[in-house]
Amino acid sequence: MHRDKTPGNSGQITSTAAFLNSTQSKYAQTMNYLHQRVGTHYSVEVVDTFTGIIEGERRQLGERTIMRLTVNQIKPGMMFASDYSTSYGLLIAARGEQISGEAITRLIALAEIGEIPTKILVMN
Questions:
Q1: Which residues contact 78 (CB under 8 A, 6 or more apart)?
Q2: CA spacing 20 to 30 A to 63: which of 13, 33, 96, 121?
Q3: Element (H, E) at 80
Q4: Cα separation of 113 and 109, whole Å?
């Protein structure tokens, strides 16, 4: 489900169900890959722990709203819904990281010089 959050298409809300569905195939492939190699490449404890963490994150994500907002619409306390890197590969924002007021100032500056998109995915 997509719907405009504000007039003029400046914000877009995406249902988390749609996001989770769009990533389900990659998630299933990754889990199958890991579980097929339990005991030969990976220990049972490591795979079980990793799987538990990932499943917990996906459950938590299902309770959040994902939005594509311009960097000047982002509010402190929101979380990044995707990783963002500069053009030379430096990670500047990690998915799940909480956004501070200082981070917003830096994001605006990076968007102004074209190092990151002007609209990014956030969760609240």
A1: 98, 99, 122, 123, 124
A2: 33
A3: strand 79-80
A4: 7
pLDDT digits (tens, 9 = 90+) for 45-62: 988 888 888 777 777 766
Asked whether the CA dihedral 93, 99, 105, 111 is positive or negative, the reply is positive
Task: Give phi and psi for 15, each to the nearest 5.
Answer: -65, 145
Output the furthest CA–CA distance in the chain (Å, rounded).
55
* Alpha-carbon dihedral sign for residues 46, 49, 52, 57: negative
Q: Is the pTM of this model over 0.70?
A: no
**Residue holding tokens 């709203």?**
65
Q: In angstroms, how far is CA 72 from the centroid of its own chain?
A: 18
pLDDT computed for residue 99 by the predictor: 96
